[in-house]
Amino acid sequence: MSAYIINGGNYLSGEVRIGGAKNSVLPIMAASLLNLSESILLDCPCISDVDISVEILKSLGCKVFRDGNTAVVDSSQINNFEIPPHLMNKMRSSFIFLGAMLGIGGKAVCGYPGGCELGARPIDMHLKAFKKLGVAINEGGGYISCDSSRFKACKVALDFPSVGATENIMLLACKQKGTTTIINAAREPEIVDLQSFLNSMGAKISGAGSNKIKIEGVASLNSVKKRIMPDRIVAATVMFAASAAGGNITLKNVNCSHIESIILLLQSCGADIYTHGDSLDIICSKRLRAADTLRTMPYPGFPTDAQSQAVAAFTTMEGTSIVKETIFENRFNQASELKKMGADITIGDRLAVIKGVKRLYGAHVYAPDLRGGAALVIAALGAKGTTVVDNIHYIDRGYESLDKMFSALGGDIQRKDFYE
Ligand code: EPZ
């Protein structure tokens, strides 16, 4: 197991470059199956979810080469269209590979992605859309067996703007005959990045970023080279850390239009934020004021993936904040750990009421999930005394060396790896 040892209280200052986005590179790695050729990915983050995606690609017969933040996928020798349960279970978003395997045409089999700490996370919308598009689906024995040979392009309406379901349909349809249209599509920037990647391969997709996406099937796709978009959630995490610990930080390689909801929220709390091109300065030199209410929403609303980090920052702001989590049924797992540090948080049905206290205090806490773990690091950086954040394998899923990033900004944080 591994943990972070954090001595709180240091003011954070300096410059940090934001790397490639986890939630963009994962669907793009699945999409790299489709061109049966080479895909070069720049700014590919070194995180464990990417490691699992590499494992899945290799299990399907792809060759994958990595050198720092560059990954090269060669899908010309794909020889397997089945992902076993033990690999599917390792990562919730592994289900995105099903659409890509079926997108090549023919049969594909995979296990269930399983729920996670955030809730049930069903796949009903994915399967409903696939069936509408003519995919034959058989479920049994823990496997989902699909056949897209009778694919029939048509309009598909999503009950909810599901990010994964939107991406899965794009991957399934881009090499199939006819025009497929997604109604009520998710509008996240990562979907725009996926469209840009697929179109660079020769796909004909339009509308990503809006709630209606049109996919005109093409017969083949080519090799591609693509820089992954900056990770808007990592940028948000740094901004909430500056809010909690005090700071004067310049973020480089950030797409400010992707984080407008976070910028506006923190400005309303009293942070000074200036944007210029692909850089952003955040200065928090005094205790911030609590946000009245915060509601997570599909993009461009406030992202659920930054909710845990916001709650951590709210714990020491002046006043009371109310946070409503509308996307996942169980995404306040960080609250019980923050309370060990002296936070005053009351949890209701998808609701958190946070009464700001002057200071948090160091404690031994356990990361409950990826973003909950990042929230505990944020709280610890601003707390008085030493905090041990345990179970940081969750954090490794989506953050590349979070300790090195905050150390470079003046945070006193060290990683300790305990080998059984
Ligand atoms: C993506 O997950 C992200 N993951 C999540 O980020 C993010 O929280 C989520 O989108 C929402 O923005 C990746 O991109 C790899 P959804 P996804 O389908 O696609 C329900 C992180 O921290 N739903 O938009 O799984 C679902 O249970 C991760 O980086 C169904 O009911 O999210 C959830 O309540 C966490 N049936 C809601 O919709 C379905 O078939 C949104 O899920 C699909 C989803």
Task: Present the secondary structure layout.
Blueprint: E1 2-7, E2 12-17, H1 22-31, E3 38-42, H2 48-59, E4 63-67, E5 70-74, E6 82-83, H3 85-88, H4 96-104, E7 107-111, H5 124-132, E8 136-140, E9 143-147, E10 155-157, H6 163-173, E11 179-183, H7 189-201, E12 204-206, E13 212-216, E14 224-227, H8 232-245, E15 247-252, H9 260-268, E16 272-276, E17 279-284, E18 293-295, H10 307-314, E19 320-324, H11 334-340, E20 344-348, E21 351-355, E22 364-366, H12 370-382, E23 386-390, H13 393-396, H14 402-408, E24 412-417
Parallel strand pairs: 2-15, 3-14, 6-7, 10-11, 18-19, 22-23
Antiparallel strand pairs: 1-23, 1-24, 3-5, 4-5, 7-9, 8-9, 11-13, 12-13, 15-17, 16-17, 19-21, 20-21
Helix pairs in contact: 1-2, 1-4, 1-7, 4-6, 5-6, 8-10, 8-12, 10-12, 11-12
The structure holds ligand EPZ.
Residues 22-23, 26, 93, 119, 121-126, 160, 162-165, 186, 304-305, 327-328, 370-371, 398 line the site of ligand EPZ.
